[in-house]
Amino acid sequence: MAYSVPNSLLAGLVAKWNSSALASIPLRYGRVSEGTNYPYACYFIVSDTPADAFDNSKILDEFEIEFGVYDVDLDNVANLINTVRVVYHRSSVTLTDGTVVSCVRSHSGTLIEPTESKQSANLYHGFVQFRVNVDG
């Protein structure tokens, strides 16, 4: 079953977040509203690409998902990014239809230099990307 609209995948990612040590950190798809309290996290689909399976017998939908963590405390960003890695890397995610898929870390971002925001002079950001293959 192909997931051209990955609502089931996104719901599964959120459910995993909410059942982990990250549950107290607000997670939003895309961007957050100005004025959101720190720390917070965002996630979004970087890419959604059909890919042939090794034996060419089926197509996989390959998703690249990025989680970003924002805070005014650099050490907290580093700790939260590490926790995101632990929660999702080489882990399974259950989609809303019961399908189980696995996540594998594909990229990690270094912590970005402080950037100014309207709320704080120093806002730190870290990110990590995961590759998820959903059978087509």
Describe this structure in words.
- The chain contains two helices and seven strands.
- The protein is of the alpha+beta class.
- It has a domain at 1-91.
- The chain is elongated, with a radius of gyration of 16 Å.
Q: Which residues sit in consecutive blocks of at least 5 with pLDDT less than 50?
A: 1-5
What string gives the helices and strands in order? HEEEHEEEE
Helix content: 10-25%
Based on CA inertia axes, which overall geometry fits?
A: elongated
The radius of gyration is 16 Å
Cα separation of the termini: 5 Å
Number of DSSP E strands: 7
- Give the strand content: 35-45%
Give the structural class: alpha+beta
Summed over residues and divided by their number, the pLDDT gives a mean of 82
Can you summarize the main beta sheet?
A: 7 strands, mixed
Mind sketching the topology for me?
Elements lengths: L6 H12 L8 E3 L10 E13 L6 E13 L2 H15 L2 E4 L5 E9 L3 E4 L7 E13 L1
Parallel strand pairs: 1-2
Antiparallel strand pairs: 2-3, 3-7, 4-5, 5-7, 6-7
What are its keywords?
136 residues; alpha+beta; 2 helices; disordered N terminus
Question: What's the gist of this structure?
Answer:
The protein has helices spanning 7-18, 74-88, and strands spanning 27-29, 40-52, 59-71, 91-94, 100-108, 112-115, 123-135. It is α+β, with helices and mostly antiparallel strands and 136 residues long.
